[in-house]
Write a sequence for this structure.
């Protein structure tokens, strides 16, 4: 028992965790500096509000945190999964967008589906659409060695404009310049989550997210498929030498990453929170926010879950900052600064390693 | 006695391992001092301490009689200590001159002043007979030339104490001779050299004194003149080492591996990298492909093992055509491959030892159940191999392969490949960069496979290895097989003629 515990606490896990925490602290300090710069008199009050985050409104506030965390955990998982295979999935936004559209389309139109299966079909279709959007960069990389960063950025734009076009043609509410509301049967069940967190937007989506985290953890760490994916990510040459089909794994990895992002879009928009897709030329921010979430979580599914919750927490804190006299842009900047500093977790991990060695050395010298 | 370097009673510990245990190294001015030891004996650690990369737990370092503290490589440079690393640290799209002055650029108002630098480099090059063309690009010059650039870089920084970390591992025999001359020239000009190696011939040729390390401990310092090779290797390994490879009477069986009219186009030129190569390997036979580096051996192996595309020709295992088969299928058909570059191809360095040991077999029912890896079986299997092949590492099967010594990494590959019980083993320079003990071990394993009735195809650049281990020698020159020789009826000189293309006995059909 003891050896197991000490192994678990063995340097790598602890270093990973503490480096993420350190990254967050530095991000927060930077946020405080911006606050001091823009409005010194209310800076500390404002900072307190950010730190209080979702807790300001008690459990309801936490419900809000969960609502905002769901999509970025999913895109974070998507980016993190592709990282394991050595791929940078910057196309999570496009996958998220097409997933969202397909979910809404089915939610609005396929009302002939039996009620209990309506939302399930919508989720699956969204995952499928996201998978398709991941498949294209994957197959291009595998067959023609096209850099996945470039092709998935292109897919982001194709996804966005195609979605805009299809919304206008199919599920458009002209008065409000947004999508039509989805049928009630297409909304994700609450499963009692709304009882714990009394907030209208919260629903069972978080349980589905936790389920995906669990599956991904198992796949990466326990299966031959995960073994292959990681081998391809760590050394593509040796994987080829060992007879692992790297091309198949690149495609599969992107397909799965895409499916997770697409599912994320559906989970966010089928929440019955009064959230609608709008026709605008902006690439979905949730996709990009998945990158810092994956980095802060060090590509570990469980790490990503908590990283996403943290960033949701800070985001809600940012909303509450509006009650002070800060320019709205400043709030955005602070939140963005905190999020992106958090992405330096890896840098801090290396730094911590070095500091640890120095400390150990000093202790040794003292002992003598 | 005056010493330029004194490292007294150095102790350096890593978690779980004492890399240097009370080691003393004293280098006189103007001598070549060899540092001899097996892989993992602590040579590199000791030099890293001297170079300021590690801080020792105990001991003191004196340079020119003065006690010093070396905290980083810059301190070392300031004290006149320079190092030629085993893997050169050069920028490939820089010219020779730019590479030499890199980090020590002479500037005027922020602009580079190359003329002064060029003058100094040319003077040094003349003085030490290190001929280089300062305007060639690093990517265009040979490995031997690159090494000269590294040496010039040290001299350019006015270093007086030069460390050579296994400098001959990457050189051809001719280049090695050149290097030896250069080293003699350097010491005659008053420089001092620490020469890290495990090649006894080279020590005999060039070194004045030799310090031997074994398993992190100081064994002794000897005068090279008065010591025999056998004595030195015994000090290094801790037991008597046989240089001759013991083989049983050959028991030839059927053809196990056949290559027919194999042609592979070169990626860089219009010529064929491998041109119309045919040969057979029988059961119980070690066939060696000899030749100077870059004559198509690497491409041939890549083609045979399925890592690159074959343009023309066929490959058979036990009569079965495997030309078009995937790497995994070849693996199942009984092909084992000990690759030339173990870091690039042979291992996933950031995987643990146990994961690397099942790199090709993780998918077999023995190690997985419905896609879930059976970690206990994998661990047991790894422990078995670690025991059987004496693979040493800090945390046994859970060690990261990156943290293991080169010799043990190679042992892991050999263990993995042989344990699959293959029909044919393709071993490419399996002993490159390894010490005497490990070389002896790997040769023994290959011979044991031969005696067990397997086919072995050995690709080697080392003439000693070619002559001692093989049953038959094929010489490759410019992508063709130009000689099919019996090691008992040929000489190294004759082999050299074939290798340089001056002689051929296999008829050329073109």
């Amino acid at each position: 028992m003891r050896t197991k515990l000490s192994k678990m606490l063995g340097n790598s896990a602890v270093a990973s965790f503490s480096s993420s925490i350190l990254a967050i602290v530095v991000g927060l300090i930077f946020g405080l500096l911006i606050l001091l710069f823009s409005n010194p008199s209310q800076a500390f009050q404002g900072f307190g509000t950010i730190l209080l985050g979702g807790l300001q409104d008690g459990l309801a506030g936490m419900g809000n945190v969960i609502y905002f965390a769901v999509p970025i955990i999913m895109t974070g998982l998507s980016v993190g999964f592709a990282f394991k295979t050595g791929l940078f999935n910057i196309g999570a936004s496009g996958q998220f967008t097409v997933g969202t559209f397909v979910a809404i389309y089915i939610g609005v139109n396929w009302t002939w589906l039996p009620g209990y299966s309506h939302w399930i079909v919508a989720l699956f279709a969204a995952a499928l659409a996201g998978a398709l959007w991941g498949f294209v960069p994957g197959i291009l990389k595998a067959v023609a060695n096209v850099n996945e960063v470039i092709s998935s950025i292109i897919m982001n734009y194709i996804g966005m404009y195609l979605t805009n076009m299809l919304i206008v043609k199919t599920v458009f509410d002209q008065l409000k310049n947004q999508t039509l509301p989805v049928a009630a049967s297409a909304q994700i069940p609450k499963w009692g989550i709304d009882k714990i967190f009394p907030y209208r937007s919260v629903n069972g989506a978080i349980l589905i997210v936790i389920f995906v985290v669990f599956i991904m953890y198992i796949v990466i760490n326990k299966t031959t498929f995960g073994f292959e994916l990681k081998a391809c990510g760590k050394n593509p040459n040796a994987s080829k030498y060992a007879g692992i089909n790297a091309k198949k794994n690149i495609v599969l990895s992107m397909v799965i990453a895409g499916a997770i992002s697409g599912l994320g879009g559906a989970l966010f928009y089928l929440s019955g929170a009064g959230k609608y897709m709008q026709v605008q030329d902006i690439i979905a921010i949730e996709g990009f926010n998945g990158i810092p979430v994956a980095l802060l979580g060090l590509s570990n599914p469980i790490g990503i879950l908590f990283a996403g919750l943290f960033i949701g927490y800070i985001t809600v804190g940012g909303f509450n900052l509006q009650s002070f006299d800060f320019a709205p842009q400043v709030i955005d900047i602070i939140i963005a600064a905190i999020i992106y500093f958090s992405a330096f977790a890896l840098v801090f991990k290396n730094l911590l390693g070095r500091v640890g060695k120095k400390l150990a050395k000093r202790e040794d010298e003292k002992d003598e | 006695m005056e010493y330029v370097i004194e490292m007294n009673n150095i102790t350096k510990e890593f978690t779980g391992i004492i890399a240097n245990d009370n080691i003393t190294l004293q280098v006189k001015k103007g001598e070549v001092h060899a540092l001899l030891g097996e892989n993992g004996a602590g040579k590199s650690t000791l030099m890293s301490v001297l170079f300021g990369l590690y801080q020792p737990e105990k001991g003191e370092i004196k340079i020119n009689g003065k006690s010093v503290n070396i905290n980083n490589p810059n301190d070392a440079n300031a004290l006149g200590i320079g190092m030629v690393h085993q893997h050169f640290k050069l920028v490939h799209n820089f010219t020779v001159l730019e590479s030499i002055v890199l980090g020590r650029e002479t500037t005027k108002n922020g602009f580079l002043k190359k003329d002064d630098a060029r003058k100094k480099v040319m003077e040094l090059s003349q003085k030490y007979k290190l001929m280089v063309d300062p305007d060639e690009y690093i990517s265009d010059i040979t490995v031997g030339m690159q090494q000269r650039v590294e040496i010039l870089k040290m001299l350019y920084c006015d270093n007086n104490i030069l460390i050579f970390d296994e400098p001959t591992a990457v050189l051809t025999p001719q280049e090695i001779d050149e290097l030896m001359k250069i080293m003699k020239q350097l010491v005659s000009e008053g420089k001092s050299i620490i020469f890290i190696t495990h090649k006894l011939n080279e020590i005999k040729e060039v070194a004045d004194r030799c310090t031997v390390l074994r398993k992190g401990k100081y064994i002794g310092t000897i005068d090279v003149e008065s010591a025999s090779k056998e004595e030195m290797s015994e000090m290094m390994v801790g037991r008597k080492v046989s240089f001759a490879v013991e083989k049983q009477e050959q028991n030839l069986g059927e053809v196990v591996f056949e290559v027919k009219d194999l042609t592979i186009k070169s990626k860089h030129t219009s010529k064929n990298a491998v041109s119309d190569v045919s040969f057979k390997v029988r059961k119980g036979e070690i066939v060696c492909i000899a030749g100077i580096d870059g004559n198509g051996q690497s491409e041939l192996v890549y083609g045979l093992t399925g890592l690159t595309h074959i343009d023309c020709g066929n490959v058979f295992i036990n009569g079965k055509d495997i030309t078009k088969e995937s790497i995994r299928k070849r693996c199942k058909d009984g092909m084992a491959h000990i690759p030339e570059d173990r870091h690039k191809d042979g291992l996933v360095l950031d995987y643990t030892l146990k994961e690397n040991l099942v790199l090709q077999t993780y998918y077999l029912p023995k190690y997985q159940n419905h896609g879930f890896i059976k970690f206990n079986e994998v661990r047991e299997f790894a422990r078995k191999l670690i025991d059987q092949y004496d693979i040493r590492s800090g945390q046994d099967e859970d060690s990261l392969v990156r943290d293991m010594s080169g010799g043990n990494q190679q042992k892991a590959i050999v263990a993995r490949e042989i344990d699959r019980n293959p029909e044919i083993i393709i071993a490419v320079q399996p002993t490159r960069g390894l010490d005497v003990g490990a070389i002896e071990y790997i040769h023994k394993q290959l011979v044991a496979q031969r005696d067990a009735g397997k086919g072995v195809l050995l690709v080697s650049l080392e003439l000693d290895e070619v002559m001692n281990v093989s049953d038959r020698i094929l010489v490759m020159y410019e992508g063709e097989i130009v000689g099919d020789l019996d090691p008992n009826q040929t000489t190294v000189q004759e082999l050299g003629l074939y290798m340089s293309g001056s002689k051929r006995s296999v008829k050329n059909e073109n």
